[in-house]
UniProtKB/TrEMBL annotation:
InterPro entries xrefs: 6-PGluconate_DH-like_C_sf, 6PGD_dom2, 6PGDH_NADP-bd, NAD(P)-bd_dom_sf, Pgluconate_DH_NAD-bd_C
Protein name: DUF1932 domain-containing protein
GO molecular function annotation: NADP binding
A Pfam family of this chain: DUF1932
Length: 284
């Protein structure tokens, strides 16, 4: 199994599958120091081309804005090497974008699995869902990895992506609502009263407010593109694009703030809600 690329999610997926007995490789060619740290003890080959050459299956895990480019790079490596691994695109993209990815990869001779991850990077004591769809979802649907639950949602490419777009709209849209509401409450000096009310009416939203909002802000470099993938998915379903176009703007502002400069690893230790909100009001 080849992981492209081993960021926080990709490296955790690699370790989950490795614990299930799969030989997992990746490449660190051109990767950042953070990605190299996150890859840890995963076996690293010299290039994407080497990964494609030796693997039966390859997984694409990149920010949504890079999904089609990544597919093109994998397809080019397939043509150069003559290898045709099964390719699972696990990126947070619309069914339409997933269709573009599938067209690129199928033209190179690859079997394509539409996939999407719901939940945090998998860990043995967790429960992360891996939505899958396509004519064949092997080998991914057949692997019993600790903390990773495979869910086949359909036989058509696009179904897994549609599932992700629908669930992410709720999970990440809720984070945007909290960002907007709590920044407004803080501005008016009523933050404590608002948090107290939410803690009574929706306690699941407030259990880890500082951490959740800090982590959302730290990932806001990639979230605007994902929100626009959701917007286009909803528009194609006749629901309109305007809501998640606006949510994309919320995360663009977060990315431009001091809170957006933190890494997710740094943000995960946040415990002071007022400090997080203060960072969201300041530019980098």
């Amino acid at each position: 199994m080849g992981i492209l690329w081993p960021g926080a999610m990709g490296s955790a997926l690699g370790r989950a599958w490795r614990s299930a007995g799969v030989e997992v490789v990746t490449s660190l060619d051109g990767r950042s120091a953070r990605t190299r740290d996150l890859a840890g003890d995963l076996t690293a080959l010299g290039s994407l081309e080497e990964v494609v050459r030796v693997c039966d299956a390859v997984v694409s895990v990149v920010p949504p804005a890079h999904a089609v480019t990544q597919a093109e790079q994998i397809a080019a490596a397939v043509r150069r090497t003559g290898s045709t691994p099964v390719v699972a695109d696990l990126n947070a993209v619309s069914p339409a974008t997933m269709g573009q990815v599938a067209t690129v990869l199928e033209a190179a001779g690859c079997v394509v699995v539409d996939g999407a991850i719901s939940g945090p990077p998998p860990r043995p004591d967790g429960d992360t869902a891996l939505f899958l769809s396509g004519a064949s979802c092997s080998p991914f649907a057949d692997l019993a990895a600790p903390g990773l639950r495979a869910v086949v949602v359909g036989s058509e490419v696009g179904a897994a992506s549609a599932t992700k777009m629908s669930t992410a709209a709720v999970y990440k849209g809720t984070k945007a609502l909290l960002l907007q509401s709590l920044l407004t409450a803080r501005h008016h000096g009523v933050l404590d009263a608002v948090v107290a009310d939410l803690s009574t009416g929706a306690p699941e939203l407030t259990a880890h407010l500082a951490r959740d909002l800090a982590v959302a802000a730290s990932k806001s470099d990639r979230l605007p593109a994902e929100m626009r993938e959701i917007a286009s998915t909803q528009a194609a379903a006749g629901a309109g694009a305007e809501l998640y176009e606006a949510v994309a703007e919320v995360f663009e502002r977060a990315d431009a703030s001091a809170a957006g400069a933190a890494t997710p690893e740094e943000a995960a230790s946040a415990i002071d809600l007022d400090a997080v909100l203060d960072a969201l009001t300041r530019h980098r």
